[in-house]
Write the structure tokens for this entry.
Amino acid sequence: MKNFLQKPFAWAMIAATLLTLSSVTVLLDTFVIQRVGTSGEVIVSVSSSSSSESSSESESSSSSSAIVPTFTENSYTDEHMTLTISTLRRHNTTVYVADIQVDDPLYLKTALAHDTYGRNITQKTSSMATNHGAFFAINGDYYGARSDGFVVRNGTLYRNTKNTSASGQALIMDSEGNFSILNESQTSRQDLIDTHPLHAWSFGPALIKDGTIAVTSSSEVNQSSSSNPRTAIGQIAVGHYVCIVSDGRLTNEAGLSLLELAQEFAALGCTQAYNLDGGGSSTMWFNGRIINQPVNSGSTISERSVSDCVYLGYS
Amino acid sequence: MSISAILKIPTNQKLRKSLLVYLGLTAFCIVFDRVYFLLGHGVESIYMLWLFLYPLLGGLLPLGLLWILVDHATEVPSFRAAYNAFNTAMATLLLGSALSGVIEIAGTASIYPPYFLLVGWIIYAVSIGLYLLGLLLRKRNVTKKS
């Protein structure tokens, strides 16, 4: 011990080894090691209660084979749903707007990567959508990257740990198909359940709340730069929703600020709109192809694996 | 820990070398933050932005003061164990802050980086304690000899 302490490189080597091992452990734990979480608690039945709900699961599964969808390059129509995707150019950015109308809010569904709730469990949006027989999907809030924030999917409560940061807002889609925005720090578990949420997403911030734009030109997700690829969802009326995905991080794609994104929703007449996970996660998938240009790492266009997605479909 | 280990005295040259190392580390942290900022599509973290303050204020400043304040005609009082602990503390703090930055920029979370910072500051305090202990033991040795 006496000799050891007098050897400068012995101490340095041991300290460096310990620090390296601990750092690698932290990085693996944060980004790689999968941890399966709770199986969740069903708080809203998705197969009965309202008339719309009763028709959806049983009828939809039996009737889906009878439904004859009509696809075009940028639209889908059947007797229960219509979807139209418009491609716009705004603020030196390509913006993809999906206008969705459903006769039952249960057709707007969510999927977890590999149908499993947990940390670092990821799958590409296109893969999740394909596995669920969807024809349209966008990425969700990537709940698995964080340990707090409400998570409700298809009526099942997986996490009620509040995101207590100043921007801790959750988007609720209730069983009637209405969107509302909650401040998580002021919402108890019971308050959350009382909203009868089909889905609760926790990313934010809210772009439009109760008809009013809720962000400013300086609003941003954490310390992000002002323009980025974005994914967001909004509501015009019951059964009428809008999903917007924008490109960004490319030479001719500047990306949108949150305010610019909110203004797009406002122009479409949305009363509620909410920012989901953006950046490299932003993905819009329709009928077997990626619509936008997802930039996963650097300036390479490739789809990122994420925790969850929002999709339209019958299963 | 042995007294001789605490009293092992690096030379003035070694202190000068340490000053240069911490100056280089400060510059590296600034460059690292800028490069990471560009590669991260402009996403910033205060842990990464202020990373350079650890080697600057925690390393360069105290060693610089030591360099300025002591009498160079005699030896700069510095001690092996304190010196090792000091460097380990700086490395731990830098790593903890860098990890916090990487995790924050990725938009995820971990409970562990704050422990790096806590442990780093504890080792930093220990290094100061060892230094003061070294000074005390050195003074006693000098008194005994005289």
